[in-house]
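Quick log. Single chain, no ligands specified.
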Amino acid sequence: MTLVVAAIGDAGPEIVESRSLIAGYDGPGPLIYLGVAAMVAAVRWRFMPLLAVLTGVLFLFGGFSDASFVDRLGTPTEPVQFCAGWLQVAGFAAAVAFGIAAVWRHRSVSARTSDPDERHDTEMEGPRR
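-> predicted structure:
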């Protein structure tokens, strides 16, 4: 979901300016974000959220190394560009944070339940006497 927000932040200003979904196309970035988001959602593998983390880190690094993108974030002369830039940064940052948390949480849950003699289904046991 966070990569979808980043795609909206990337493609939104061009679409608003041109008033057309096709004419506002400025590059493959939004399609890459949506493709990665679809893969993370569709493929059931424990480490798949790390693909979203990698995508977020790469595009954040690329964005902050581009002077025009950094200027767009720092000077709100054009409100649509300014808000869209911050929406894109927030989407990528959330993808990184939530992707790491998803893999880390899954790892810690499986480590806690690795003892086969320990039961965790207290709802099935009933009251203890």
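The helical segments are 2-18, 29-42, 49-64, 67-74, 79-112, 122-125.
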